[in-house]
């Protein structure tokens, strides 16, 4: 069993304040595969104070952006050098298929860190501007200490997307990984230490609600960045509002895929099965889980989706042939199962899946599931399922499809499928969401400013927009030069 006994605080591996530990269970075997210390509120306080000291008096914010970029490149190199180890840890703790882990969860974080290193070198942080009263000097400065609260479904990817930008901006950080998937964060801390990152720039405090609450409420934190549920995001926003702490929230989604009447059904089914059912075991905030299709083509698409869902190979996440592994916990599988049952009770038809796969009673597996005959008022259409379930909703026309797509509290992503790309793009502009895919549904790009509208959150990850999440503006007024007498 993989285990650690110390927390990483102030550049040192230190004993935690309590003897509490986090046992990390494999979603595929239900056995404990890792054990790490659980950070208490006292540990969080130590970590924030270390990050505060590193920001207020340490070298990191005072290094040139190019010097910080050099450290980030070494961190990315370290992630690449330890890719096999990270792949094993993330696969064992998350249940994600190993091929998905290798690409999206180990390789992609390297791209994000390198992207922010490039931005650090190329983004102007100072300018002079002419004003009515004289010359203005505009400077972008780091916001300070960042508290990063990471979800279980994209542990290393979310960490790289958030902290890569924060570090590039000159911030220091306290990282709280999810108790379900904390193992990779310890490897990252070792990599940062070996890369020469100054003490206190990264501080690691894995834990649950106690650690998260302490981090959000700590007066030494200047900004919270969080990925997770909308319910928790609201609570964080309320807590930050009381102290005027900055925050960036990447929250839930309930994306709609609008299938236009000219779309090639085979391509649509293949793409949506990948996004809504296979990607991340269906546990993705950008899953295109509501499929809006013209009535004239609904039966054709439903049959194609159901056939494709039945072909998805569900099983051992370490088998390269596996497309869908188990859900993260028994409790989460129960919730997904209850959602499907609620859909049935409200009149939806299960066209594929709907239960535990035969022969996979051990582990928290759930079949890729297609529900047809869904109305947008049903629970399965209103709530984020966060599992391998897709719902088919019939619409009269393009206008009704757009109206239903926008009839949700969420606004994270959406997609439009058509043989005419310009037509698809025009429809996409009518969808109230932060990301729109055309004839696609699950592309990641470090240059993309990723984030939501409405109750899907605020702020952006990726691109220069994310770098600016961790910068604040200072203006110096310079008096107009007086003519020489």
From TrEMBL:
Family annotation (SUPFAM superfamilies): ALDH-like
GO molecular function annotations of the record: aldehyde dehydrogenase (NAD+) activity
Location of the active site: 250
UniProt keyword Cell inner membrane, yes or no: no
Reaction equation(s) it catalyzes: an aldehyde + NAD(+) + H2O = a carboxylate + NADH + 2 H(+)
Assigned EC number: 1.2.1.3
UniProt-recorded name of the protein: aldehyde dehydrogenase (NAD(+))
Source organism (scientific name): Streptomyces fuscichromogenes
